[in-house]
Amino acid sequence: MIQAYSPSTYPRRPVKVGRTLEKWILYLVILAIAGISLYWFILGRGKTFEVNLSSIKGTVQYRANEKDGWNTVTSVPMKIAVSTEIRTLADSEAAIASNDGSKVTLGSYSRIVLAGNVGEINWVQTDGSSHHQTAKNNDRKSYKVAISDGVVESMGTAFEVKIKETDTSVLVLNDQVKITYKDKSAAEAKAGQEIMINPVGKKVQDIDEQELKEDWTLSQIKNDQKNLLAIDSGVLAKAGLSEEAAASENNGTGGDGGQSANSTAATEENSNSNTSISTEPAQSQGKSDISLDLKQSDNGILLSWSGAPGDFESWKVLKGGSADVAYPNDSYRTLAKENNSYLWEINGDGNNYFFRVCAYKNDGGCVAYSNAPSISPSAGSSASSDTAVSSAESTASTASSTQTSSSSSDNSSGTTSRKLCENSGGHWTKASLACKCPKGEVFVASVKRCKKK
Fold first, then answer.
1. Which CATH topology does 266-389 take?
2. Cα(342)–Cα(332) distance, integer angstroms
3. Contact by Cβ (8 Å): 392, 312
4. Which CATH class is domain 51-224?
5. Buried b vs exposed e over 207-233: b needs ≥16 C-beta within 10 Å?
6. By the 8 A CB rule, do 416 and 448 touch?
7. What pTM, to 2 d.p., does this model score?
8. Is residue 110 helix, strand or coil?
9. Which of 171, 193, 307, 369 has the most CB within a 10 Å radius?
10. Which residue in 99, 96, 85 sits closest to 57, CA to CA?
């Protein structure tokens, strides 16, 4: 016989209080362990460092990742996020600074990607020259630069990475670096040595004096000394510099704000009486409260200015051949708004140049111009030339609107082809000496530029 129960008389299982309590305790222990593990994981990752593009010279471009198109930098400082790639075009440089105390300067035709900034600084360099100054920082576990042949790790160092067509070199200017090659072998190099990698092999050797005296490397060394950043005394001697002389030079374009000249340089006397300076104002630009002065120095033309409008975001420093020099038609440099002087390196070729500055606003262009004084640098006034990406080259890179070819490469290895390729958003590949265009574009051989399909 089946016995029926009413809800009130249905038999219930006895509640086991002890076992239920044990389960809750176990759950709490698991949660506590997970919380502690998460805390130590986050703590172990370390501090997130802020990285900024602090100054530029010439044309500098960036993109968020390799699938995106290139954008031209119009104002600094500009925050750099992880995976952002920075590249410089012809006669251009870029300075990058991080709050871990490190500084990077890129030379012309250079490319670098920020690969990591949490607990460490990691870069990937694919082309050109980079100069690194790494201050010791207890919050930073490591500072590394990855190249195609391995990974270079700073050990409290000043060093340079130079990637050329057939070889790569790492010049150690202070302390030492360690490189771990792709085959997992490793080597260390100390101040005054370089790591050389080429198709023949890899080795550590003494830096050749002539390599230290190359214009770009020498200017970086001088700039570091000017800013009291350490360079080994033996390296200075090889470069033909004393510590005192290098520190007093104002020749640099490095991590302290590009070629912004300091207040000492701004008072430099014009020692060459053959220099001709005119202070006629520019044509048809209206009254301006910005006053610009020029002075010739041993390294070029020193510009200093005073006055500024109330609302602007950066300076455009301009050089042209007539009094109506204007942005963006003429050669220009971009500086942070805090600057009020700039050293424009230029050969003494006897030509007459007009200079000008404009206060630039991202959504309004140049909101105010200075006067436009001119100067004729005398011969021998500078050891290096400083030719920006000119309006003629810019026009050439955007000249044609008619596509006449679907070819995606250009087998010319000339400098002009490379300039036009990169100015139109392409990437000049070293291996094949060809132009690789962004996704959705092809290289048009007749006009030597990338165009949409």
1. Immunoglobulin-like (2.60.40)
2. 12
3. no
4. mainly beta
5. beeebbeeebbbbbbbbbbbbebbbbe
6. yes
7. 0.52
8. coil
9. 171
10. 96
